[in-house]
């Protein structure tokens, strides 16, 4: 089984390579890739390990990987691009263009509520299969008819999977096509980034693998590490206990939000899910392509700078009704909080989105930084998975 790290790293960013190599050396990775842009210059493009534990297939420069909820930032960008073009008003009522969505007490919902986890629809009321989840119109109709768990705009709670079919409906109704097709047509053409991947991409994509313990490390992603300077949430046993309790309680908002729709046999390796391209958690990308998405956002090549500034302005912050810890969101983008760790250098300016298992995409307009990290070994954020944080920390330190 190969664990050697390959690729390019600018000498000024050697700290990123050191962290990435240490993650492999200490058993925290199976296969992974990380890419960093400083401005338009690609300063890190590294990969290593195996793409498929079962076959031993090596991770290659063009190996794409599933990004889980990192997808949300791409979906939100598609919706924001349409608002920028005048298709709808971000702070206007959703019922103006989706009349059915006002049912059950949701008539006051705005597009901003949909984009910032304030819609009151963090989970589907009834079970949804992977096959049913391939029909975005049908899932949007379910959510339109559903009674909210709180009045839209009065609270926020992470819409782990429903987010995609709420924000995605903005795109579908105003562009006449699903999110994945819109992204490919408008700002993803030629990039190794898909929301709804063709079979040949699915075939060569990294296969996700559950963590397992090995001697001297914990392949849940935490591994053996010095926590002296870890983010406070990792040191806070009460926070971790509350997260673990919410995750395992079948009646908790968090459990209901993250487990329905269920991906079915094979989990998120299921080709049914990967073809469908769930707009909340369906992106497959290479690390350079995903980092390139953030590079282009920071440079103003996808959204106008003023649109991005408004999108990353925190709309909500504090206790999250779904995640049971503090979160902060702009319009589709996470801001630094307990579920989006950043070092001090990025606290005021970093934005992006994490994904289950440890993946992350991050941009910083002031620092000119763009970073993407995609692993196929599922980390356990409930025990303090810091792989991405350490890479981000090293990238910021390298800038200075």
Describe the structure.
This protein is α+β, with helices and mostly antiparallel strands and 400 residues long. Helix content is 32%, strand content 16%. It has 14 helices and 14 strands. The protein has helices spanning 14-25, 71-84, 111-115, 136-145, 162-175, 179-186, 199-204, 232-235, 237-248, 253-258, 271-276, 287-298, 305-312, 387-399, and strands spanning 5-9, 31-38, 41-52, 57-58, 65-66, 193-195, 213-214, 217-218, 283-285, 316-319, 326-329, 350-354, 360-364, 369-375. The strands form four sheets. Strands 1, 2, 3, 4, 12, 13 and 14 form a seven-stranded antiparallel beta sheet that branches. Residues 212-230 have low confidence and may be disordered. InterPro entries: Beta-lactam-related, Beta-lactam/transpept-like, Beta-lactamase/esterase.
């Amino acid at each position: 089984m190969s664990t050697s790290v390959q690729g390019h790293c600018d000498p000024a960013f050697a700290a990123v390579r050191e962290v990435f190599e240490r993650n492999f050396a200490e058993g925290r990775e199976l296969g992974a890739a990380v890419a960093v842009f400083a401005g338009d210059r690609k300063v890190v493009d590294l990969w290593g390990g195996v793409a498929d534990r079962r076959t031993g297939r090596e991770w290659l420069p063009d190996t794409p990987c599933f990004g889980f909820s990192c997808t949300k930032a791409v979906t939100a960008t598609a919706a924001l691009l349409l608002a920028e073009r005048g298709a709808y008003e971000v702070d206007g009522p959703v019922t103006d263009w989706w009349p059915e969505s006002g049912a059950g007490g949701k008539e006051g919902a705005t597009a901003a509520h949909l984009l910032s986890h304030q819609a009151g629809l963090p989970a589907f009321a009834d079970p949804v299969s992977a096959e049913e989840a391939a029909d975005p119109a049908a899932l949007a109709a379910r959510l339109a008819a559903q009674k909210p768990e709180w009045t839209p705009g009065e609270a926020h709670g992470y819409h782990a999977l429903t987010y995609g079919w709420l924000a995605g409906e903005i795109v579908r109704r105003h562009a006449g096509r699903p999110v994945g097709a819109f992204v490919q047509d408008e700002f993803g053409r030629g990039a190794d980034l898909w929301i709804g991947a063709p079979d040949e991409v699915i075939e060569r994509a990294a296969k996700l693998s559950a963590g397992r313990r090995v001697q001297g490390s914990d392949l849940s992603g935490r591994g053996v590490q010095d926590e002296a300077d870890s983010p406070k949430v990792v040191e806070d046993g009460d926070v971790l206990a509350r997260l673990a309790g919410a995750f395992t309680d079948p009646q908790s908002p968090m459990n209901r939000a993250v487990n329905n729709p269920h991906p079915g046999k094979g989990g998120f390796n299921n080709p049914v899910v990967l073809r469908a391209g769930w707009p909340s958690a369906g992106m497959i990308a290479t690390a350079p392509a995903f980092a390139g998405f953030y590079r282009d956002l920071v440079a103003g090549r996808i959204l106008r700078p003023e649109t991005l500034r408004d999108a990353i302005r925190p709309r909500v912050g504090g206790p999250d009704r779904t995640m049971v810890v503090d979160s902060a969101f702009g319009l589709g983008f996470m801001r630094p909080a307990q579920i989006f760790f950043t070092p001090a250098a990025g606290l005021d300016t970093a934005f992006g989105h994490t994904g289950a298992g440890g993946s992350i995409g991050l941009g910083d307009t002031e620092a000119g930084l763009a970073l993407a990290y995609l692993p196929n070994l599922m980390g356990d954020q409930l025990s303090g998975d810091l792989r991405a944080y350490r890479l981000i920390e090293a990238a910021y330190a390298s800038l200075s």
